Amino acid sequence: MKTKLSLAASLAVALFLVGCATPIPPGAERGPNGTMAYDVLVEASSPGVRIEANGEQIGEAPAHLKIFGDPDGTFHDFGSPYFEVRALPSAGVTNEFVQTRLFGTGQLFGPQDRIPQRIYFNMNEPPQRYAPYPVYVTPPPPAFYDPFYYDRPYYYGPSFRFNFGSGYHHGGHHHR
User: Fold this and answer.
1) Is 147 contained in some domain?
2) How does pLDDT run across 51-107, given as a tens digit for each residue?
3) Which CA distances in Å does 91 have to 12, 51, 82?
């Protein structure tokens, strides 16, 4: 009886763990660490724009980028908090800017973004400003650390005071 109960419990745990994993669809290209391949089209507003992904040259826009992500459609954490895609202006063009898109991979409870089907770069717009993850708050100005206010806490209990010095006189005569 006990053997049947432990067998049923272990079978239930195994089915629960198998049910939690998102299966890779049939026909999908498998990647490392249980990931699958996604094809992302990368386009730019002008021809000849060079595309980089995590520092590696992909080619000129339009380009197809293969991203290995989780089966649920999100970026996989391969050790970096972000997946970076950059578009570099073509040589000799002065009115275009470097464009960057950052996608969260979910590292250390950070944001985890979905893998897009298409990334478009408008090279004529100024680049976006990204705050590094995590966002650090600057400390308050030194006026908040004034020792006049934060030197020692005031004590409201009984106190004893000992006075030594010129305040003690003999026989009511003052010596000059």
Assistant:
1) no
2) 999 989 999 989 999 999 999 999 998 888 889 999 999 877 778 899 998 898 988
3) 61, 13, 27
